[in-house]
Amino acid sequence: MSRGNTMLKEEKVFKDPVHRYIHVRDQLIWDLIGTKEFQRLRRVRQLGTTFLTFHGAEHTRFNHSLGVYEIMRRMIEVFKGRPHWNEEDRLLCLATALLHDIGHGPFSHSFEKVFDTDHESWTRAIIMGKTEVNAVLRRMGDEFPREVSEVIEKTHPNKLVVSMISSQIDADRMDYLQRDAFYTGVSYGHFDMERILRVMRPLDDQVVIKSTGMHAVEDYIMSRYQMYWQVYFHPVTRSAEVILNKILRRAKYLYLNGFTFKQFPMHLQPFFDGDISIADYLKLDEMIIFYYFQVWEEEQDEILADLCGRFLHRRLFQYVEFNQHFIMNEWAGLQERFKAIGVDPDYYLVIDFSSDLPYDFYRPGEEEERMPIHLLMNDRKLRELSRQSDVVEAISGKKRTDHKLYYPSDILHTPGQENEKREILEILSG
Amino acid sequence: MLDQHVNVLSLLQTVGEITGRKKFQKIVFISKKLGMPFHEKYDFHRYGPYSEELNLRLEELQQFEFISEIKEEMAGYHQYRYQVATNGEHFLKTKGNNRETFEQQKNVIQEMNVCSSKFLELTATILFLEPANQEEIIRKVHVLKKTQNYSKADIEHAYAHIERWRQHLNKVKLPSEGRVSSSFDG
């Protein structure tokens, strides 16, 4: 489909530290990048609170989205002229790759939990609503925004296109693993993407990998596994996330209970009321959130002020491993002891769970939900990756979970009520 | 504390037993869409709406020994049966006694539980595709769920169920969504 699109007179390039250059040749893509909704992504970090653990992790949804677009563009170059690939889907793929995260807000994870929103719904709303993005997409036809939205929602009938942006080996993951590794400075996220791109093939309703590329895919799966446990679930990052979540809950609680803020949080009012328009949503970015945190650090409410100070100045919660014994035997006592020393356990005693399933495949009759990675063998037959790779087989279907209990260690070491605090520390140390 | 875990546990206690992971997933999704207090995030997957978060929640509840998952060998596949374990009952009594127990939504949830998972997959898919109009939804159901071969009668049946469940729940007071939870929420 090229209706409504022209090629730029001169190719535009973005210098990118991960992919070297990002190439834009289509007017449609150039115009989408120029919309205010896409430019807002410059003000939303890709990794939320991770910058408090890895100080380099300041990259944004903007450069990740450009990266996903670039990988998709390269994937399409490999697919061009091959059976099963329809060149008419090119712009649908490119626009989807670019816009797949357009609905992310600041610190999406915490926001979604506290305000019961969902960035994918906002992505669809921004694409389908009265926005600059929608106006640019509509130049391709009235149905084009809906098609882009359906690919992101995974309800588009063209499953090949859906799998290029969301599957166990897709353009989105290939960008964020490399980008997050680069900006955090860790060595785990690296794999040979050039090799993977060279061996990717379109086939009916999925992307498959030539069997000769199996080792590059093994590397990719393992690097994903490492990134989850070393970066994404890092306990310090989780601690920051826990505090962020509690700040938003406290602010919402205060608002709903008629608290008079020194500086009324007008940008958050629609979220507190649960009546959010697209315009309200797009006004939020991390700059606004940090502004309120700075203001709230001076608020009368001690809990809100303390939590904001902790987040801004990185005075995070300490943690211990949490287990079933704890929940059945110690939990109620621990909460009571926190109350006795004047610390509200609702805000200062938090259980956090992390879980990851590095790779999975369908099992007949069960509701396993992940589209497996298929290798294209020399005899043109398909084999599921874990049947062929011992490395992948070893981690297939193996979910790893981690439970931690977060608490403010500093409070437990201040003078006053020493006996009660000692008891708490004894329980926490098991 | 652990509000979302308590909700899943309470739902299971309300129906006694749920057979099949798919059925569990769809019952929670449909309940959520009907306004019950579930906050698990759902995406559209191979069998319709599916939540990795709920999957994790069930795993945690097993690790805490609050629910039991019994794996049964069927002809050519496995099936999972879920029940509240003794620890879970104890937990609900001591920690969850001020929580919603879905007493008023009981009939609706029980009715879902006796439906087949194939029918719940259809119902959940329809709810996922809302607010599109009925004609559009039916067209998409036929495209997305081609292998399930849902008939016109199946689809009418699903819409009738949704309507009846909505009407029933409109008559009962749903839990307040404005309440600030004290639970884990990460």
Structural write-up:
The complex is a heterodimer of chains A (about 425) and B (about 190). By secondary structure, chain A is an alpha+beta fold. Chain A folds into 2 domains: about 5-230, Orthogonal Bundle (Hypothetical protein af1432); about 235-355 and about 405-430, Growth Hormone, Chain: A, CATH 1.20.1250.30. Chain A has 23 helices and 9 strands. Chain A has helices at about 25-35, 35-40, 60-80, 90-100, 110-115, 120-130, 130-140, 145-155, 160-165, 170-185, 195-200, 215-230, 235-255, 270-275, 280-285, 285-295, 300-310, 325-340, 345-350, 385-390, 390-395, 410, 420-430, and strands at about 5-15, 20-25, 200-205, 205-210, 320, 350-355, 375, 380-385, 400-405. Chain A has a 4-stranded mixed β-sheet. In chain A, strands 5-9-6 form a 3-stranded antiparallel β-sheet. In chain A, strands 1-2 form a two-stranded antiparallel ribbon. Chain B has about 190 residues and is α+β, with helices and mostly antiparallel strands. Chain B has one domain (about 1-175). Helix content of chain B is about 55%, strand content about 15%. Chain B has helices spanning about 5-15, 20-35, 50-65, 85-95, 105-115, 115-130, 135-145, 150-170; strands at about 20, 45, 50, 65-75, 75-85. In chain B, α2 runs parallel beside α6 (about 115-130) and α6 packs across α7. The longest helix of chain B has 20 residues, at about 150-170. The radius of gyration of chain B is 17 Å and the shape is globular. Mean pLDDT of chain B is about 85; it is low at about 175-185. The interface between A and B is large, with 45 and 44 residues.
Give a brief rundown of this model.
The complex is a heterodimer of chains A (430) and B (186). Chain A is α+β, with helices and mostly antiparallel strands.
